Each structure stands twice: as structure tokens, then as C-alpha cells.
Amino acid sequence: MTATPKLIRGNLIWNKEKTALTTCERGWIYIESGVIRAILSPEEGETIAQRGVAVEDYGERILIPGLVDLHVHAPQYAFRGTGMDLELLDWLEAYTFPEESRYDDSDYGERAYTQFADGLKNSPTTRACIFATIHVPATLRLMELLEERGLGAYVGKVSMDRDCPDSLRETEGISALRDWLTRWKESPLVCPILTPRFVPSCTEELLEGLGTLQREFRLPVQSHLSENPAEVELVKALCPEAETYGHAYARHGLFGGEGCPTIMAHCVYSSPKEIELLEKNQVFVAHCPQSNANLASGIAPVREYLRRGIPVGLGTDVAAGHSLSMFRAVTDAIQVSKLRWRLVDPKLPPLSFPEALWLATRGGGAFFGQVGLLAPGFDCDLLVLDDHDLPAPRKLSLEERLERLFYLGGDQTVFAKYVRGRRVK
Amino acid sequence: MTATPKLIRGNLIWNKEKTALTTCERGWIYIESGVIRAILSPEEGETIAQRGVAVEDYGERILIPGLVDLHVHAPQYAFRGTGMDLELLDWLEAYTFPEESRYDDSDYGERAYTQFADGLKNSPTTRACIFATIHVPATLRLMELLEERGLGAYVGKVSMDRDCPDSLRETEGISALRDWLTRWKESPLVCPILTPRFVPSCTEELLEGLGTLQREFRLPVQSHLSENPAEVELVKALCPEAETYGHAYARHGLFGGEGCPTIMAHCVYSSPKEIELLEKNQVFVAHCPQSNANLASGIAPVREYLRRGIPVGLGTDVAAGHSLSMFRAVTDAIQVSKLRWRLVDPKLPPLSFPEALWLATRGGGAFFGQVGLLAPGFDCDLLVLDDHDLPAPRKLSLEERLERLFYLGGDQTVFAKYVRGRRVK
After folding, report:
1. Is B297 near chain A, with CB under 8 Å?
2. Does B266 touch chain A (CB under 8 A)?
3. Which residues of B touch A341 (CB under 8 A)?
4. Average pLDDT over residues B389-398
5. What residues of A are in contact with residue B405 (Cβ under 8 Å)?
6. What does the radius of gyration of chain A's CA atoms come to, in whole angstroms?
7. Residue B85 sits at the chain A interface (C-beta within 8 Å)
8. Is any Cβ of chain B less than 8 angstroms from the Cβ of A257?
9. Closest Cα in chain B, distance from residue A252 (Å)
10. Tens of pLDDT along B299-334?
11. pLDDT < 70 regions, chain A
């Protein structure tokens, strides 16, 4: 990040509103210290460029805010796209826990996390909220790898101490977390986040300790909530005194509210009481449509969350989601919302493309602060998209080009990528 | 295609059974005149290779039968990935009919169909059942373009004469079809297929004429069936005397049975009576999961069709499906089957990866004859898949590599492709 002002030019598209796209053909973004100072029309930008401000001109390419992955498991990247035949609890036992156990070996961690960090760098994601494993050294290394690549991330050393293999059981309690927090240096873009795996994996003592730590360090929190019917039943049996699954976090101060920004992934089976609490505490819902299909979990009522003003973003949830691409998260969110409307609840209309794009930009970006819009005061997180590999027999509008890029494009369409004003791809 | 025998070597995987994968590490395929004569173990193949038979060795790459796209609209390729906000009937009017009208202009057709044919050539599809438009010259040109690329296809000049723009209304009745059939030369791999668009677009007279032509030329038939609730209601209103939508085709001899191989796309809302007729007449169901999500149609009960022994294959249904990739059709079929199991009918278990692969190979391949297996007597339709761009931190099994290729791979993983023994990519 440099304080020197800069102009970036191209075809700008973003969500000034949640439900509609704003476009600015051959517009300019004026940035300083990594922050957007102004969005300028072609004429306005020309005038400033003539004053000698540095220009990066991307021609007819499309510039949009960077995409935010609100839920992804770095250690599971290694087996993404395999083992897609089980539901959540069996899938954790058969595939996930054995894989995560390997990260005790730092050579394996180095190899696997380098592949993950490179994958994320090449993807359309600029910021991500990431689960690591319980292992402190591997988690610290993952954070370094992300920082080296200039990506923005919250990374969580996972906390878990019951109903899991011994190799993944936290034996040192909260002290391992303190160790991790102490050893991570300050970093402008990569920060720690408290990460209880989910209620079934955490004893009351562990959750209590996490709550204490949260209040001491004012750290954000991420976890899973009401993903699968069997999981919801399990939590009921484990915590009979908690009113809902969400309350089992909330009673330890790990469920949003003042000074405790929190993300809960999935929320497919949240009861009315739980939804009330999500709303009251302004907990972020990480909607993970691909994962919810692959593990036969179901489809979350995103439209209802949006209507209630609950903050919502999208997550790939690799490796229950097989693809690290947020393009897929956007189009999958639209597709499953259509199926939910048709098969479950005709009162909740499907998501439109602008709405799903909003979820992936400003929706999740809000967890990171002033992120996810092309507007003054916002971090300059940008994707430069190139669709020359997607021929068409006639001229398409900017909006058509963008929709097509999301439906058809892979990492190769991400020509350049900026995080807080710095080009990282 | 050459009569000279040849050996092709690599890691072979296919469905000897519908529900399980068979693998042969570093196996050999012995072919002659484009047809597989034998599948050979490493040792058996070595012996024959030493006799001087030509060898194409693909090393550690994976070889599987070619994928069959049982339902795709060539003229819609031009707008794939755009306009994903409407249901079927409105979508046809707003996007599809205006686009298809352009194919009256042969320059446009040339440009657009060349892009489609190149797209299909680069994709994992070896054979396809294709809808063109009503226009004879453009349809003939499409057939040539496919033939030049060595692909296998049934191509249909579309028949429609009601409830559509004038520019797409067949005015010459059956004589235009005769003209088309007469002008298409014999071709070993690209053949005509009768293609009434769907009942709402066809008068009784047109369907009657198509039935007569079918019996005269013994041509196969393709159309759409019970895709969307509003469409099903419309057909009820248009054909009150037909017992089901399917019967509206059947009474003209356009719905399977002896000497009339037929594909019906979708079958999402087929009633028990219609399903009985599909079974009795052994009509092929082209299951198009991506399309059915994009147009909010629903999810077809594929498991039920398989249990009844109804022939089923997969279709991309571009452009209601946005992706031309049969990899996506396979993984989408698995995903929506899981959602259907969860949300609609717990008595119909989801599709497994081997089952979905079977649908895309032998399932659809059966429409083309001896196609879709690695077995003696079958056409040598092959994909050579390369996964070196998909790194993993540890060694994966062949089955894991293949599953991952389908979930994560794009066209670039199709290293080579054979149709009836001839390398076409």
C-alpha cells in the first residue's frame, strides 16, 4: 500500500443498491493509501490524469469490488471434489477429521497450505474468513502464507475438545489459544478470529474459556450453526437447557452483539427463536449453497434473513463445497434460491444476480469494515475481469458480460486483483 | 477412422455396472475400425504392442468413455450465462425466440454456430443431441461444422408453427423438413432427428405431419416434456383430450416404441400415467439438472426412472443450462438429487458419482447404439483427462482423481478426445 494517489480505469460495475447494478463505462477509481477517494466519470478522470496522477488502464475489461468468502476451511482444500457421498456428521468422521489430523506434521501443512494460499490468490476472492485446524504452528504458517500473497483474511485456529479423534482434541484448553495469539504479529490484513468448530465438538468449559478470551481481546468469532437436521438434534441432546443451538453459543458470549462480531455458517435449520437471536445480535450468516447441496443439508432461507436485516454473505465452505471460486458461490446461491422457492416456500422469491453479487461483495465485506463497494472511503478491493475467452456472436451489454463471467468464468478470467489498493495478482 | 488396429494406453475407468466404477491401471484399449476389440491388462497389452501395433500412450492420464449430451440447443449458446431471471414460458419469449430468429441470417448463423461447434469440440462431449432452429440453411451448416470437427450428433431442424413470433413460425409445414432431409448428405456421425419444439408450439397438423414423416423415414425424435408447472397446465388446456402431455406426442406416433427412438427432455412433472408411458415406450429421459435450477423448474425424479428401467441420460440444455460442460451435468445431477431427497422425497436416495457418470456415458450413449462403455464391440469414444493442474498434497486414488476432475475440471482437463476411434481434440 502506498500513499501516492493512483487512478485505475475500466468498465466499473457494483451494487450501489442491494437489488441493482450500477455501471460506469470506462470510469475511473481514484485511490490513495489503498482507499477509494472518488469514482469518476470518463471526463472527470481525464482531467485528473492530466495532472500527472499515475494511471492503470484496463481498457474494456470489467472492474468490480473484490469477492469475500465468508466461510472456508483451508486444510480441507486438499480433498476438495472427493468424498461427496455422505452427510455432515459422517463426512466429518470419514474424510475431514483424518485429513485435518495431518496438519500436526508441519511439512504436510507447508505443502498443503501453500497450495491453498496459491489457489486463493488465483481465485476471485480478495478477503476470506478461514478455519485452520487446532494446530498452532501450521495455523501461524497459513497466516504468513496469506499475508505474503497480500490477501485479506481472518484466520482461526480451531478449538475443539470432544467427540473427535485424539489427534484433534485440544488438551491445553485456552492456553493453546493464548500461545497462538501471542505468537501472531500485528498485521494489517491477516487477523486472528476465535473459532470453536461447532457445539458438538466443544465442551462447556472450552466455550466458557473462549467467551472469556473474547471479552479480553475483543476478537471476532466464527463457527457453524444449524447446518443439518441430525446435527441440530445432537445439539439439543447435548445442551438440553439451551433454548436453541444459537443460544448454546450465546450463553458464553460467542454469538454477536456489541463488541463481538460473529459469523455463523449455514443457518439452514434455524428456528424462529434462533432467527430472532441472529437478528437481535446482528450475527453474520455465511450462506454456503454448494456445501449445503453436496452434503444434502438443504437450502437456507436467505431471502428471509435479508428481509429481517440480518447480515448475510456467501461462503464456499471448501471442502464440503468443492469449488474455491466465489463465482460459483454467487451462481449457486441464485440456483438454490430458485429451487427453494419452487420446492419449499413460494413466499420467498429467488435471489436475482444483482442481489447475489451484493451478498458476495458488500454483504460479506461488511464483516471486514469498509469493504465491498466502489465508493469513497472504502478499501480499494478490486477484480479486473477479462472475458475475451468467452466469445459471443454479437455485442453484449456490460451487465450481460458480467453475469456471463460469473456463470461461465474460472480463475483465468481474473486478470488482476487488488486488496486495499495493492495489486496481488 | 482407419481399419488399422491401434492400442491406446492409460489409466482406464468406466462403469461395467451402473452403480460402480471399474478401473484398470495403465491398461490398454485395442481398437480396429473405430471399434473397441478388447480391453487389455498391462501385460496383455505389452505382448500385442511388441507385435508392432501402433501405440498411443497417455501415461498416468485417465481414460474414460466419452460423455454424451442428450439435450442441447445450439443457437442458444450465444446467450448462455445471461438472462437467468425468468421461468420457462417467459424466458422463451424474452430471450430465446428473439435469439433464434437471428438464424435466418446465414452470416450470423455461421459465426454463432462456429463458436458453438468449437465450444463443443473443446468440451468433454463426444456425442450430442442438438436442437437447431427452424431455418434449413443454418441447420445444414451446423451439421457440416459438427462433421468437420469429427463429433457425433443428432441434429434437429426445429418444427414449430404456433404461439411464437412470425419469424420462427413454420409456414411450409412438412415440406421444409423434406427439403432439409433431402439436402443433408449421408454421414456416419452426424444424423438428422425430428424435433417438434414442444406441444405448445406445434399445431395438431404439424405433429401429424411429423408422425407421417417419422414412419416414412424411421427417424428418431426429440422434444420437451413436463418441464414446468405452467407449461404442463398450458398443454392440458391446449390438448384437453390427451390423457397426459406425453400422450399428446404419442397419439401422433412421436413418443418412443418400436422403430421410433425418442428423447424427451426434463420430465420434472411427469404424472404416474405419463411415467407408465415413458416406461412402456422406452422413451429416453434427458435429465437437465442445471437448466431445471436456472429456470426454477424443479428437480426430476431420476431415481424413480432408473428403478423402473426407463432409459435416462444427461443434458446440458444450453442455454437454460449455462454450461456446455458435461462435467457440470454430472455433478449437478448428484447435487440436485441430494436436494430432492432432502426436500421432496426421502424415499428416493441421491445419485452416487458412479451412477451419475453412468448416466453421462452409457445412459445417454445407448441412444447412439454401442456407445458409452469401454467394452468389446463398442465405438471407441474416449476422453483423455489430465489433472496435473489440480495439485494435491498427497497421492490420490484413481477414483478420487476422477471424481475431482468432474467436480473441479474445465475443458482444459480434456487433453484428448476420440470419437469412434478418431482423435478429434
Report:
1. yes
2. no
3. 296
4. 94
5. 81
6. 21
7. yes
8. no
9. 32
10. 999 999 999 999 999 999 999 999 999 999 999 999
11. 1-2
For B309, the grid coordinates are 428401467
pLDDT of residue A2: 61
Would you say the C-alpha torsion A98, A104, A105, A106 has a positive or negative sign? positive
Backbone angles phi, psi at B176, to 5 degrees: -65, -35
State whether residue A408 sits within 8 Å of chain B by CB: yes
Residue B200 has pLDDT above 70, yes or no: yes
Closest CA of chain B from A309, distance in Å? 23
- At B179-199, the pLDDT tens digits run 999 999 989 999 999 999 999
Average pLDDT of the residues of chain B: 97
Is the separation of the CB atoms in A135 and A156 below 8 Å?
Answer: no
Contacts of B400 in chain A (CB under 8 A): 79, 82-83
Q: How far apart (Å, rounded) are the C-alpha atoms in residues B242 and A66?
A: 54
Kindly report the nearest CA distance between residue A81 and chain B, in angstroms: 4
**Alpha-helix runs per DSSP H in B68-168:** 88-91, 97-101, 106-122, 136-148
Q: Is A153 on the interface with B (CB under 8 A)?
A: no
The per-residue pLDDT for range B73-99, each reduced to its tens digit, is: 999 999 999 999 889 999 999 999 999
Chain A residues whose CB is inside 8 A of the B112 CB are 393
Q: Determine, for residues B336 and A391 on separate chains, whether the beta-carbon distance falls below 8 Å.
A: no
Question: Residue A363: what residue type?
Answer: G
- CA–CA distance, A267 with B385 (Å, rounded to integer): 38
Beta bridge partners of A127: A68, A152
Handedness of CA B408, B410, B413, B416 (dihedral sign): positive
Sheet with B414-419, edge to edge strand ranges: B35-40, B20-32, B6-17, B54-65, B382-385, B414-419, B422-423
Per-residue CA distances from A389 to A112, A125, B77, B182 (Å)? 30, 20, 14, 37
Tell me how close the Cα of B322 comes to any Cα of chain A, in angstroms: 7
* The pTM of the whole model exceeds 0.95: yes
A-chain residues near B356 (CB < 8 A): none
Taking contacts as CB-CB distances below 8 angstroms, the residues of chain B near A391 are: 115
Q: How confident is the model at residue B173 (pLDDT cuts 50, 70, 90)?
A: confident
Cross-chain residue pair B335–A294, CB shorter than 8 Å: yes
Peptide bond into B319 cis (omega under 30): yes
**Mutual orientation of helices B136-148 and B174-183 as an angle, nearest 10°?**
30
Separation between Cα atoms, residue B119 and residue A73, nearest integer Å: 34
d(CA B225, CA B249): 9
Nearest to A398 by CA among A8, A46, A60: A60
Q: Looking at the predicted complex, does its ipTM rise above 0.90?
A: yes
- Contact across the interface for A403 and B323, Cβ inside 8 Å: no
* Segment A166-201, tens digit of pLDDT: 999 998 889 999 999 999 998 999 999 999 999 999
Strand partners of residue A131:
A73, A156
- Neighbouring residues of B194: CB distance < 8 A, sequence distance ≥ 6: B156, B159, B177, B210, B213, B214, B219, B220, B221, B222, B254
* Rounded Cα distance, A109 and A75, in Å: 8
Closest of B337, B23, B326, B396 to residue A80, by C-alpha: B396
Among B335, B343, B402, pick the best mutation site for testing chain A contact (most A Cβ within 10 A): B335
Task: Check CB contact of B112 with chain A, cutoff 8 Å.
Answer: yes
Search chain A and give the residue with CA nearest B118.
Answer: A391
Q: CA triplet B199, B204, B207: central angle to 5 degrees?
A: 70
Between strands A35-40 and A20-32, the pairing is antiparallel
Q: What is the pLDDT of residue A354?
A: 98
Give the pLDDT score at A3: 77
Cα A197 vs. chain centroid, distance in angstroms? Answer: 16
